[in-house]
Amino acid sequence: MKSGDGLYSYSNNSYLQRGVMNAAKQIVSEAIVENLDILKFSSSTTVRVADLGCSIGPNTFFAVQNILEAIELKCQNQGLDSQIPEFQVFFNDHTSNDFNTLFSSLPPNRRYHAAGVPGSFYSRLFPNRSLHIVHSSFAIQWLSRVPKKVVDRSSHAWNKGRIYYPSAADEVVEAYSAQCAEDMARFLQARAQEIADGGLMILIFAARPDEIPHSQLVANIMHDMLGCCLMDMAKKGIVSEEKVDMFNLPLYHMSDKELEAAVERNGCFSIERMESLPPISSTLQSLVSTRHKAQAISFHVRAAMEDLIKAHFGEEILDQLFDSYSKKLEQEYSLFESAGTSALNLCAVLKRKTMNC
Question: Coiled-coil annotation: which residues (predicted)?
Answer without folding.
Answer: none
